[in-house]
Amino acid sequence: MMTTSPDLRTVLHQVTDAMELLPCGAEHSCSAQLRRDSFALRERVVRAGGPDGELVAEAEQLLGRISEYLDATGTVR
């Protein structure tokens, strides 16, 4: 079970919600990369076993990248 600080937990939840909006398909290679990055981040969180300021910053950065991609593709949130 993942043990995280409330801040990290909140950001990871936001990342999960945003990931559900990402388009799928071969023509969306950026979307696929964001999905891989999200999975890798979650793996690092599990391995860390607890809150880490660097992981919070990385999660926030990923959320920003997802938001930028959704905006660029015109995805309604």
General description of the model:
The model has no long low-confidence stretch (mean pLDDT 87). The radius of gyration is 13 Å and the shape is elongated. It is built from 3 helices and no strands. The protein is mainly alpha-helical and 77 residues long. The chain has one domain (6-21, 28-72).
Which key terms come to mind for this protein?
mainly alpha, 77 residues
List segments where confidence is low: pLDDT < 50 over at least 5 consecutive residues.
none
| Shape, principal axes of CA atoms | elongated
Structural class, please? mainly alpha
Q: What is the makeup of the main sheet?
A: none
- Please trace the helix and strand order, writing H or E for each element: HHH
Q: What distance separates the N and C termini?
A: 30 Å
Question: Count of DSSP E strands?
Answer: 0
Report helical residue fraction: over 70%
Average per-residue pLDDT, rounded, comes to: 87
Structural domain count? 1
Tally the helices. Answer: 3
Radius of gyration: 13 Å
Summarize the structure.
With 77 residues, this protein is mostly helical.
Which secondary structure elements does this structure contain, and how are they paired or packed?
Blueprint: H1 6-19, H2 29-48, H3 53-73
Helix pairs in contact: 1-2, 1-3, 2-3
